[in-house]
Amino acid sequence: MARHGAASVRRPDDETASAAWRRAVEEAGPPTPVRWEPDEVWVKDEDAPGEAATTAAAGAPGRRPSAGHRFNVPEVVVEEIRGSAGPERGAKLAARLADAARAYDHDRYGEARQLLKPLARQVPDAPAVRELLGLALYRTGEWAAAVKELEAYRQLSGSYDQHPVLADCYRALRRYGPAEEVWDDLRRASPSAEVVAEGRIVAAGCRADQGDLAGAIALLRRADRRMRRPQQHHLRQWYALADLYERAGDIPRARDMFARVAGADGDGYDARRRLRQLD
User: Fold this and answer.
1) How far apart are CA 114 and CA 128, in angstroms?
2) Mean pLDDT score of the chain, rounded to an integer?
3) What is the phi-psi region of residue 190: left when phi exceeds 0, alpha when psi lies from -120 to 50, beta otherwise?
């Protein structure tokens, strides 16, 4: 899968996943990593002491850092690292984490990965390090390595925010059983509509990969609700559902779903092109 404007992350071909489905999930984008794109507070070094920090929620518009600035790691993360490495050494490692976070935020995933691997060895119980390394590995298509890091993050943090990414790594490895377990864990916890939606898209993709189009459609059909102001996670589910309908031969429903996506966001997806192909 590949986010709009981000580097392409390719998953292995398989006989049951059609070119249309692969195109659909690529254009819909990857599961949205919650914390590091960015959902933490980043403070510019030149900001005056006491000045309000800039924040941006994951997936929402926000000020992105310019390449020339150094960014500090949130204090809670610094404390995590200090707790593992000690105050003096922890401060140095936190500075390296800041460099890795800046590289990741500018889509330099390979650079972030290289900076983070030594950190993960030195502070293996720091959740933020394992999380960001897992996301960088995911972006570079190193699925098995990403699973290791994201599973560590899952255990250390108790958080559900990267469950969709973890499930997608299992899916890329064709390990559908673990992917389904991660989805079930996420579904039961239901931490937020956005995160659950991303997990549902991955879970539907797993079923489609295995030839269960009916099961994939049934899972995403729960998101088939008309609304005046749909958010991006609604559009992503609608788009994936439209593709599944097309694959299943239900052209009227596929046309309706693509039209719904195109009407809400004509530029963010290729739903208009898909509609023309159905005529």
Assistant:
1) 16
2) 78
3) left
pTM confidence score? 0.76
Around Cβ 169, how many Cβ atoms within 10 Å? 31
Read off the pLDDT of residues 29-50 as tens digits, 9 standing for 90 and up.
567 665 444 333 333 333 333 3
Tally of residues, the chain: 279
What is the identity of the amino acid at 170? Y
Determine the Cα–Cα distance for residues 236 and 95; give it in Å rounded to an integer.
Answer: 36
